[in-house]
Amino acid sequence: MNYDSILSERVKELRPSGIRRFFDILEEMKDAISLGVGEPDFVTPWHIRDAGIYSLEKGFTKYTSNAGMAGLRRDIASYLERRFDLKYDFATQMIVTVGGSEAIDMTMRALLNPGDEVIIPVPSFVCYAPLAQMTGAKAVLAETRVEDEFKLTPELLKSCLTPKTKLVVVPFPNNPTGGIMEKADYEALAEVLRGTGVMLLSDEIYAELTYGQHHFSPANLPELYDRTVVVNGFSKSHAMTGWRMGYVCGPAPIIKQMLKLHQFGIMSAPTTSQYAAIEAMQNGDRDIEKMRDEYDGRRRYLVEGLRRIGLPCHEPRGAFYVFPDIRGTGLSSDEFCERFLMEEKVAVISGAAFGPGGEGFVRCCYATSMKDIAEALTRLDNFLTNLKKKQGRGEA
Ligand SMILES: Cc1ncc(COP(=O)(O)O)c(C=O)c1O
User: Fold this and answer.
1) Are residues 32 and 160 both part of a single domain?
2) Which domain range does residue 205 map to?
């Protein structure tokens, strides 16, 4: 059978994520430390797990309504209003999804036609461009810069806009840079977009993880509310990656079309997880704050440690990543990661895996214990000292 000739051309053209290969090597290594994986090291809080278990005991094992249980959607609506001042009608403006991932995929598929252009700020999470390409749309990569704290500036947006632009992804707080956008930043973007029909996909999966200031959504601006689709979920805020719980909110006519995709492709998000999510929405605010405080302590420690060792790094104000600048080492991001892993058994992720703007940087995730972060810093110091010696001898 010639499978190559029967596979979808679009699927074949996608490049696999550059992140996974590393974890395969890591798995075989003893005493290795990973600052690689982008997920909370916390276990889902017990009362949330318990709610899931209880629903199983009660035998709640059937499909739910396609958009998700009405009670859960009501709770999400009140959570969004309580925590982010975002108002959505649970009945017409919201779908409970299989993680934020499904919500991103559906937004792309509901909005894009072949030939449309999607502006994607990079470096950023790896799924946006491939999912856009699967619709036949063209991904236009907008390279954000450390000098701008990795924000999407109005100048950068303007330089990427064309009459074909349909959608702009706004991935903030950002994975991998930790960059955030504030009210004034979105006001400036709103001015650029005024009079166009361009939509925004705001990926707010790290909304609860901002440090020193409150998260601001483009949908908080009346001018952008009608043209923004908000994606969020439970994975990072409530340490629930494995439950696969997310949601999408936006203008009712768009959500109505998305519901068809969700109905035909998924049916309904996992029922046990929906029961757990209700508990998270009703009684989970304190867990969020506890975990955020813990992340914040690690963030400061890691940033300080990296700077002390001699790696410049901008202050990440959101998510759980630090994105140090490794250009001074003379290595490419890929070389740096490969050698650091082989020589010191510490995994960090090459910035290049997150798009062209990421070359010269590496992503260090601090959703891991202080003990591991401290040990990783010691090993990094060692690695850089040895590298300098080797370079001095002309060996590296
Ligand atoms: C920026 C960003 N968006 C979305 C996701 C997907 O999250 P979920 O587990 O909700 O599908 C991730 C996961 O790492 C992410 O980093």
Assistant:
1) no
2) 46-284
With a Cβ cut-off of 6 Å, ligand 1 is lined by 38, 99-101, 125, 171, 175, 203, 205, 233, 235, 241, 246
- Of all protein residues, the one whose alpha carbon is nearest to atom 14 of ligand 1 is 38
In a domain, 112, yes or no: yes
CATH of the domain at 27: 3.90.1150.10
Q: Which atom of ligand 1 is nearest to the CA of 206?
A: 1
Per-residue pLDDT of the chain (396 residues; tens, 9 = 90+): 999 999 999 999 998 876 776 777 778 888 899 998 889 999 999 999 999 999 999 999 999 999 999 999 999 999 999 999 999 999 999 999 999 999 999 999 999 999 999 999 999 999 999 999 999 999 999 999 999 999 999 999 999 999 999 999 999 999 999 999 999 999 999 999 999 999 999 999 999 999 999 999 999 999 999 999 999 999 999 999 999 999 999 999 999 999 999 999 999 999 999 999 999 999 999 999 999 999 999 999 999 999 999 999 999 999 999 999 999 999 999 999 999 999 999 999 999 999 999 999 999 999 999 999 999 999 999 999 999 999 888 877
> With b meaning 16 or more CB within 10 Å and e meaning fewer, what string describes 180-196?
bbeeebbebbbebbeee
Q: How many domains does the chain have?
A: 2
**Do 225 and 325 reside in the same domain of the chain?**
no
**Last residue of some domain: 254, 269, 284?**
284
Question: Does residue 26 share a domain with residue 54?
Answer: no
Q: How far apart are CA 150 and CA 296, in angstroms?
A: 20
Q: How far is the CA of 231 from the centre of ligand 1 (A)?
A: 10
Q: Best of 235, 244, 320 to mutate for ligand 1, by most ligand atoms within 8 A of CB?
A: 235
pTM tops 0.85, yes or no: yes
Q: What is the CATH number of the domain that holds 196?
A: 3.40.640.10
Q: Which of 102, 125, 150, 232 to mutate for ligand 1's pocket (most ligand atoms within 8 Å of CB)?
A: 125
No. of H helices and E strands in the chain?
Answer: 15, 12
**Domain contains 70:** yes
Instruction: Compute the distance from residue 37 Cα to the ligand 1 centre, in Å.
Output: 12
User: Within 13 A of 257's CA, how many CA atoms are on the CB side?
Assistant: 12
Task: List C-alpha distances in Å: 226 to 229, 253, 300, 302.
Answer: 8, 11, 37, 39
| Residues 132 and 112: beta-carbon distance below 8 Å | yes
Taking CA atoms only, the protein residue closest to ligand 1 atom 3 is 205
Beta bridge partners of 170: 202
For residue 284, how far is its CA from the centre of ligand 1 (angstroms)? 19
